[in-house]
Design goal:
The complex is a heterodimer of chains A (about 140) and B (about 120). Chain A has one domain: Heat Shock Protein 90. Chain A is built from five helices and five strands. A five-stranded antiparallel sheet of chain A has the order 1-2-3-5-4, covered by helices on one side. The two termini of chain A are about 15 Å apart. Chain B has one domain: Udp-n-acetylmuramoylalanyl-d-glutamate--2,6- Diaminopimelate Ligase, Chain: A, domain 1 (3-Layer(aba) Sandwich), CATH 3.40.1390. Classes of the chains: A alpha+beta (about 140), B alpha/beta (about 120).
């Protein structure tokens, strides 16, 4: 099996204006590779939501996208506060985002549910005070 | 519906993307919550919004949308205009409020479900 194609981005925390830049770049790269549009859309939406989450909640982190022959894997790794209750965080509409984020069009409690919705599998490893690592897979 | 028709119906000003006004779009959605756009929208080519920040442009790009209409005379920043140009997204600015803007487009055949009318 050949080595996957790998994209790595440092996501800056607290900078809402630039949030999403990595996802836009990933989308551009996946288009260049020539993946099907529906796959590209699913990967980029899931990553975009994750990237926004990292900016809002975790003070940034590292995003990696690996393109295999039959799937795309997105790994979002942050050193944020961790998620106290994953089950609750997965509920549509549940949000801990501050009001100022809501006034920017996010924080509706749709981030994690959206990430799950657009991917074939999603795994969350989280530890309070240490950080969160989310691995998502979109199969071709 | 052509984007030029949207411009006429909403008495909108073209902020950028003049060269793409003859592009056809088949459906639209209106929201100020980008999370909801990312959750519920499918194949809508036009986003009507009263929200003004860079995430509006990136959300539209993620959803493969081709046109953003700012309602209530909201105006995008210079940075947003540059971003939209880079992504080939047409931006319009309309004095109409969200409800009326959506209603006008719907009444004239631009529905919300992505199907061709």
């Amino acid at each position: 099996m050949s080595e996957p194609l790998k994209f790595r981005f440092d996501v800056q925390g607290g900078n809402f204006t630039s949030a999403g830049q990595a996802s836009v770049l990933v989308k551009k790269n996946l288009r260049q590779i020539g993946l099907p549009p529906e796959i590209i859309r699913r990967v980029s939406i899931a990553m975009y939501e994750g990237e926004i989450n990292m900016v809002i909640h975790a003070g940034g982190g590292v995003a990696e996208v690996l393109v295999f022959e039959d799937k795309v894997e997105i790994v979002l790794d942050d050193k944020g506060p961790g998620i106290p209750n994953i089950e609750l965080a997965m509920k549509e509409g549940f949000s801990t985002a501050p009001d100022n984020i809501r006034s920017l069009g996010f924080g509706a409690g749709m981030g994690l549910p959206n990430m799950k919705r657009y991917t074939d599998s999603m795994n969350i490893e989280t530890e309070l005070g240490k950080g969160t690592k989310i691995t998502m897979v979109v199969n071709f | 519906m052509k984007i030029s028709a949207i411009k006429e119906l909403l008495k909108a000003e073209v902020i950028c993307g003049e060269e793409d006004l003859e592009r056809e779009v088949y459906s639209a959605c209106g929201s100020d919550m980008m999370s909801d756009v990312l959750a519920y929208v499918k194949d809508q080519g036009v986003l009507l919004t009263g929200l003004v920040n860079s995430q509006v442009i990136r959300t539209a790009e993620m959803m493969d949308m081709v046109c953003i209409v700012f309602v209530r005379n909201k105006r995008p920043t210079e940075e947003m205009v540059e971003l939209a140009k880079e992504m080939g997204i047409v931006m319009l600015c309309s004095p109409k409020r969200m409800y009326e803007a959506c209603g006008k487009l719907y009444m004239n055949g631009l529905n919300g479900n992505g199907a061709t009318v």
